[in-house]
Design brief:
This protein is mainly α. The protein has two domains: 8-48; 72-122, no CATH class. It has helices spanning 8-50, 72-89, 110-121; strands at residues 61-63, 66-68. The chain has a two-stranded antiparallel ribbon with strand order 1-2. Strand 1 (61-63) and strand 2 form a beta hairpin.
Length: 122
């Protein structure tokens, strides 16, 4: 049977050939992933370009010397956070007053942040 008596030279050739094949397959997979990512980005750009965009520029509003952006997105985010707090605590929304929402600094690693972002986007 073939391979019963294989020498070190032939084993080295098989090993090097296998490494080269694996390397090229990994390169092909990498290019395929880049190609699919480019297609998905192109589709997202096309969707955002045809959708209804905001034409008015948003100016920062100064309150007590602190510049904030009072946009519809921030108001919606505050409403979502308030609704989550109401659902979590179980109290009526009439009894809950949100005075300030602050973003905490990222204490997770980059891996943890990406995992959370992928989980949320699903």
């Amino acid at each position: 049977m073939f391979g019963d008596n294989i020498g070190f030279g032939n084993a080295g050739i098989v090993c090097v050939f296998s490494l080269i094949v694996v390397f090229f397959v990994l390169i092909i997979i990498s290019y395929l992933i880049d190609f699919v990512a480019a297609l998905l980005k192109k589709d997202k750009k096309a969707e955002s370009g045809t959708g209804k965009g905001k034409s008015a520029a948003v100016e920062p509003v100064s309150k007590n010397g602190i510049i904030t952006q009072d946009t519809e997105d921030n108001q919606r985010l505050a409403a979502i956070i308030t609704a989550a707090a109401v659902a979590f605590t179980g109290v009526s929304s009439n009894n809950l007053v949100v005075k300030k929402i602050t973003r905490l600094p990222a204490s997770d690693s980059a891996w943890g942040q990406m995992a959370r972002q992928e989980y949320i986007s699903k």
